[in-house]
Amino acid sequence: xxxxxxxxxxxxxxxxxxxxxxxxxxKKSLQEIQELDKDDESLIKYKQALLGSLPATVDPSxxxxxxxxxxxxxxxxxxxxxxDLTGNVTALKDVAFVLKEGMLYKxxxxxxETHMVxxxxxxxxxxxxxxxxxEAPKGMLVRGGYHMKSLFTDDDKCEHLAWEWNLNIKxxxxx
Length: 175
Prior knowledge:
The protein has 175 residues and is an alpha+beta fold.
């Protein structure tokens, strides 16, 4: 798809255009979903396999999603690079995490669901999501400190947690 000047839009612009055609389905509680088709035994078993058993009561004061931690997973790291996101996340603004240049790393996000969010149903154990492996930038020009602004959202663009932190790209783990 090209615009009138013959320049192709970047991937983000194309993605935004396709998002305009998406209409979110009507929101239903887990109880409503399990009540649907309650006469069909095979669907009841299928929903039980997907959703598990419903919690007896859900505290409405507890947020939908509780983000527990974020970690940079790097096998060569001398120690864990982990952020506890259950407490005061504003304190992370003053902490700098170190990542050696050129290292392969993955980002791990641990979160808990209390209600249904997308394809993640509520359960007692936290979910763990790993990003694909990426290589940290390397070279003299990219070494230094980076201020990160992280945001945990769902497909409905609902913000569950926002926090800021610092990442230092260094030649060695400890300098």
